[in-house]
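request received
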Amino acid sequence: MGCLERCQFGALSIPEDVCVVDSDRCIGCGNEHPIESLLYTCPQCGHVLLLIDRAFDDLKSIPGEMWHKIFDYRRMLNIPALKGIYRYHEFLGSVIPLDSIVYLGEGHTPLVEANSTLSQRVGIKFYYKNDGQNPSASFKDRGMASALSYIHFLIQQGLVSDVLAICASTGDTSAAAALYAAYLQPHIKSAVLLPHKKVTPQQLSQGCLSHLLTYRLLQQLLYCLWLTAR
Ligand SMILES: [Zn+2]
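response:
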């Protein structure tokens, strides 16, 4: 059974020879690196990397209406990995097997109608996503669910161990990283680099509840970002 056939039945597993993101391609020099390599940037030139899914064009063989039905069908399934952002598994990162996905309730936050005052001011009826209802009260949970699911996959494959996840953040990102990393203990610990006197205790409190290690640096956030990339 091929990948696309399985999708219609809930994407219970992904065969390695069909639904794989084959490599990271550098947008600078064009060099490709195996997806199993845990790289932050291109080791040759330092540019960022682009995920290449060689099977992506195969998804076009399924009409859009069918994809809608597949996504709606998955909402009824009792498969945690398909309840969050990975309900759209084939479009987000099919390299990650469903049993590696860390799902904490992120995604599918309420779509709330704007009140009449706002609608009149804008001149049209509109809605907004209440992403404050994500697990760490931030939209950052969507990206962090993806990042930590990938790390989980590498851990399960025995490709990495004793991981220290470092981020430079003044609030939301560190809280989200700490929360998702806490679910992969003892294999992974998380730390955040902070610009000194630029973060309030309230901003940090949520991350600390998830065993976040904190390092306050005298420099500004940009320096923290640079140091994290090293
Ligand atoms: Zn490069």
